[in-house]
Amino acid sequence: MPILTLLVVLAIIAVAGYVLGRRRAMASADGDMRKLHSLPSYYGYNAALTGLVPAALVLAVWTIAQPMVLQNNVSDMITTEVADDGALSLIMSDVRRLADGLDTAVAQGALTPAEAANMTAEGTDVRGTLADVGVALGSEVSQDVLGAAQAYRAGSATGNLIKTVLVLLIAIGGTAFALMKTTATFRARNTVERGVMAVLIAAASIAILTTIGIVLSLVFNTVEFFRLYPAMDFFFGTTWQPSFSGRGGASELGLLPLLWGTLYISFVALLVAVPIGLFAAIYLSEYAGPRVRAFAKPMLEVLAGIPTIVYGLFALLVVGPMLKDVFGGDGALGVAWMTGDRSVITAGLVMGIMLIPFVSSLSDDIINAVPQSMRDGSLGLGATPSETIRQVVLPAALPGIVGAILLAASRAIGETMIVVLGAGAAGRLDLNPFEAMTTVTAKIVSQLTGDSDFSSPEALVAFALGMSLFVITLGLNVFALFIVRKYREQYE
Amino acid sequence: MTASPKSSLLTVDARTKKRNAAEKRFKAYGIVAIAIGLMFLVVLLTSILRSGLPAFTNTVVALEATVTQEDYDAAEGQLLKTAAYEALLVAKVNEFLTAQGSTIEVDEDFITDRLVPKTGATIREFYKANPDQIGQPVTFNLPASTRISRYFEGDLLREDVTDSRFLMVEDLDVVDEMIAAGLITTAFDWNFITGTDTAVDNPGGAGIGASVIGSFFMMIVVLLLALPIGVAASIYLEEFAPKNRLTDLIEVNISNLAAVPSIVFGILGLAVFIQFAHLPQSAPLVGGLVLTLMTLPTIIISTRASLKSVPPSIRDAALGVGASKMQAVFHHVLPLAMPGILTGTIIGLAQALGETAPLLLIGMVGYVAREYPDGIISGFVDSNSAMPAQIYTWAARADTGFYEKAWGGIIVLLVFLLTMNLIAILLRRRFERRW
Amino acid sequence: MKDLNLTEKSHLMSDTKISAKGVQVYYGDNHAIKDVNVDIEDKTVTAFIGPSGCGKSTFLRTINRMNDTIDICRVEGDILIDGEDIYDPAVDPVQLRAKVGMVFQKPNPFPKSIYDNVAYGPKIHGLARNKAELDEIVEKSLRKAALWNEAKDRLQAPGTGLSGGQQQRLCIARAIATSPEVLLMDEPCSALDPIATAQVEELIDELRQSFSVVIVTHSMQQAARVSQKTAFFHLGNLVEFGETDKIFTNPEDPRTESYISGRIG
Predict the structure, then answer these.
(1) Lower CB count within 10 Å: N or C terminus of chain B?
(2) CATH number for the domain including B245?
């Protein structure tokens, strides 16, 4: 039974459970609602949920686990010499594609189920047959792969059957069990509420699962990478030069040039965003009248709502050429500092623009958290507003502002689209901000897009880069949030 | 203590003057900072509009043709069916040139490669769909080639043209005749809104329609998952969670996830959904899952703020008449917090809609979204692009003709974002409640 | 409103320091102070009493133009200090506030060291030519504020680490470090416990030697203890002004009597 139909059947069972549960409860109370412990609908919900929830859980787990189990069983059938795990995973994806193809062919009537199960690679032109029904296969099909695909199909057919029967049994059994328990004294509301509470806790735990997912997917692939490429060379290498398979020569995958580019661009971005954002925040919170504030604040926040892809394009097509017109070879200054549109300063400037509202709204909150009594104290002594801000408000707000700047730095380090489009592609350890450099995030993108083989060090390095990025930004965030929280407590 | 000399308040001393000047300077810095910020905004928006609006119009060549039943049958009988229709156009243009008193004669290459590329198929499809029009005079508005439209719009000057397979200098004489006769005009390009992506050699024909649908399906996934999960998680954390280690762990996780770079979520999606769970690459379903995980913290944070703003007296009132805690929350607190929750969700969705980086890693970039999905299921699981991914794809292509499309795509994206934010603002205004 | 015939000659120093004439204060549409006329003497403690919202704090804040920091606030009439109108356009509020110091309801030390808190005023007004002079000002101010003995060993400790009473005395030290001529105190003891209140009250009595002190207070006992002159405000009007003893024992206006005996407030 296809999964969608199964879900519909489950829904029908649940609705039936609700109706029956409710009716049974009313019957047991002789039609007098007041004799029931809970409202009648709770008995209905109880019956519906007792059937639905375990069945849905089993369905979900089974659906995820079945392909993995099958694949494990089937992979023993591949007898061809296999170089490593990566090659095996490629073959396994062929097997899956072939199995899906056979399914399609059977569904469209090009093959009978028996033919699909018994065909041999020597006897039939498998590739041709499948191409006729619109399934393109990359290479000729070997007997091993065909056999594995047939076994895979057989296995998933059996698995699906067992799954369907099991899920339906659980659903019906659960509903029946709940109906049996339904009497006037049964505490249906408490049971339902316990169930709802479990759902709420599960939803809240997704945050933990996400973090675990991130850490595991980074750690496993990073470990894999370090088996193929020495960790010391990665962390302390000063050259970034991935080779593409086939060109010969080993890749040099040093983190330092990427990290340098990342930090340099982030530094330029903060150099733009912090003074502008901070002064804007100071002006808006300390000087501006309500009308200026009502206009300028949302206008600046529009900058924060613009997607980063827009900034990326802005860097590549507007700011880059504009800077080149000034600092390039034929530029207004005639200094020839800049050779291309992409550079540290292009990306940094645009990233700075993006961060202005981030810095200003965070600083605004923090400056407003400084109690008015501080300002009064200073003004009452005859300080001018600017003296008050510089010598009382800002020092008092300093921890919070530092926290805000650290958060902005973490944003800048993790920003992807602007550097992918505006910063350049070559890793370089250089001080010239008009030079193109590349960043950790830009390289994660370039190593994981395209046709590279996921088991090669050139692709796996992206996970090690992701790990470094995650650790750096996490460290910054935790530290910044800690500072900001401490600061808030001070004035609460 | 230095006894300050008895001074009159009515005269401002030198030190105060200096301090007041510093005050003025300081205030000016603030004004300058805001002015710079606003200037950036203006430059950004004008760049977008200036470069993007042309994507919504195209230059069309109006050619009137009458295809008789014999022409149609003859053309359908040929091996290269579209070429036969193009030959009809060649005759048409030559007829026009003679009528104008011109001695130039054009060949098929001019029509198919240089004036209105790939139009034979358009004409054929039209007659196949409208057989009743055979024998009637029909005016076709055919999109002109990139170079000719640039020439028409004045972006390309005759002096700059060198003969190439895309445009010959002498073609411009024909084009001038056609412009003089009003056959070449600018029209709104519906194809950009409704069309699909094209091959890398045809920037003029590219449209954003298919990727809008891709984004739409992604947003459906995000809405269906992030809203219930986010609300459930917030209710637990805000209303029920005991103060313990687990709760603390969840809280710390949420605030950190909110600040994790979006590209890391892309890595998560690639490793978990594609490599591990073998979900289809480039599918809106996977994109939606990744964006759900990414937006959840935002939605949880704003939902908790809305729940927190419902005063405790409401809960007390419900508990006081004998409702269970769960009933108090679901019957009273949640409905009151709903406008705030929806506002937060819409803003979260808008954020997700513009997000690009994670989509790069799950294969939505580089996929050429040439067709619309067949149905609802296909919309979720078949490869497609999404608006920001499509914009990136265009920006990364070598042909600069796609840049205009990328800017145009940005306008479409911003219109969606603006609409969503307006809805959020209206919702907030309409239901804002002061306790 | 009666301007009472004051027995000024009975006082040692009886020259007028602050003179308010027809002062009106508006917060937007709200008429907060209605035509107040009062002469405040030098080297005297003058107490403003009255029920909450009667305008006593508002009037206090007009004396050093702290109301300027509130956008919607508008002041009419004249306030003269030493015969000069402080609302004259030529007057810079910065200079005025150096001359008219202020201590607030809640102790509000800056998040700086004790030393820096006291040195803040002299530094911004440039009252010290060198570090030694600054040290001297700080010591003198702290001594005057009766905080020197408690603070001399921890001058570099943060001012926020002191107890409530010490913080308030620090704020007083901070205010007198700029050597003002008038010291305004807005309910300086309302956030303090009784012991700290007693210390601050004792201090106020000593400050009378050098300054004209104006204190707003909620507590009639306090007004009776520390002040020589008392002004009673009610609903924005200055109802009665005179010798403290007289106000508390033999008030002329029935409203004053009601307040003193606890019927309004």
Answers:
(1) C
(2) 1.10.3720.10
Structurally, how many domains does chain B consist of?
2
Inter-chain CB proximity A407 and B249 less than 8 Å = no
Has residue B287 been placed in a domain? Answer: yes
Q: Which of A197, A213, A286 sits opposite B268 (nearest CB)?
A: A213
Overall average pLDDT of the C143-151 stretch = 88
Range of the domain at B248: 209-431
ipTM: 0.86
Chain A hits for C121, CB-CB cut-off 8 Å, are: 381-383
A195 close to A49: Cβ distance less than 8 angstroms: yes
What amino acid is encoded at A121 in this protein?
Answer: A
The single-letter code of the amino acid at A404 is A
**Cβ within 8 Å, pair B12-C137:** no
Q: Are residues B338 and B395 in the same domain?
A: yes
Q: Is B296 within a domain? A: yes
| Mean pLDDT (whole number) for C131-140 | 93
Q: Is residue B21 part of a domain?
A: no
Instruction: Quickly state the pLDDT bin for B103 (edges 50, 70, 90).
Output: confident
Those of residues 165-224 in B touching chain A at CB distance below 8 A are none
Of all residues in chain B, the percent with pLDDT exceeding 90 is 35
Res B184 pLDDT > 70: yes
B126 and B183, same structural domain? yes
Exposed/middle/buried for residue A86 (C-beta within 10 Å: 0-12, 13-18, 19+): middle
Residues of C in contact with B15 (CB under 8 A): 125-126
Q: What are the chain A neighbours of B407 within 8 Å (beta carbons)?
A: 313, 317
Q: Nearest-CA residue of chain A relative to B234?
A: A204
Length of chain A: 492
Residue B4: the pLDDT is 45
Query: Are B305 and B381 members of one domain?
Result: yes
Cα–Cα nearest to A358, from A429, A406, A290: A406
> Which among B188, B223, B249 is the end of a domain?
B188
Q: Are residues B354 and B258 in the same domain?
A: yes
Question: What CA dihedral angle connects A402, A403, A408 and A413, to 10 degrees?
Answer: 100
Half-sphere exposure of A325 (CA within 13 A, CB side): 6
Q: What are the residues whose beta carbons fall under 8 Å from the beta carbon of A227, sequence distance 6 or more?
A: none
Taking 70 as the pLDDT cut, the residues of chain A under it are 1, 79-90, 121-124, 134-140, 244-249, 450-453, 489-492
Summarize pLDDT for C181-223 with one digit per residue, the tens.
999 999 888 888 888 888 889 889 888 888 899 999 988 889 9
The DSSP result for B387-435, as a single string, is HHHHHHHHHHSS-THHHHHHHHHHHHHHHHHHHHHHHHHHHHHHH----
Task: Answer with the one of B154, B188, B222 that is the final residue of a domain.
Answer: B188
> Do B306 and B423 fall within a single domain?
yes
The minimal CB distance from B16 to the residues C92, C133, C140 is found for C92
Q: How many CB pairs under 8 A join A and B?
A: 262
Report the DSSP beta bridge partners of residue A262: none
What domains can be seen in chain A, in order of their start residue? 3-186 (no CATH), 252-490 (1.10.3720.10)
**What average pLDDT score do residues B315-323 get?**
90
A65 at interface of B, judged by CB pairs closer than 8 A: no
C-alpha distance from C44 to closest chain B C-alpha (Å): 20
Angstrom distances, CA of residue A448 to CA of B286, B294, C70: 16, 19, 58
- Give pLDDT, residue C190: 85
A306 touches chain B (CB under 8 A): yes
User: B288 with B364, same domain?
Assistant: yes
Partner C contacted by A287 (CB < 8 A): no
CB C259, CB C265: distance < 8 Å? yes
Contact A466 B263 (CB under 8 A): yes
> Which residue does chain C place closest to A399, by CA atoms?
C111
Question: Number of CB pairs < 8 Å for A and C?
Answer: 70
What domains does chain C contain, in order, with CATH numbers?
A: 12-108+181-260 (3.40.50.300)
* Claim to verify: residue B149 and residue B227 sit in the same structural domain: no
Of A276, A306, A316, the CB nearest to B36: A276
Q: What is the pLDDT of residues C237-249, one digit of tens each?
A: 999 999 999 999 9
For B10, the closest chain C residue by CA position comes to C91
* Within-domain flag for B202: no
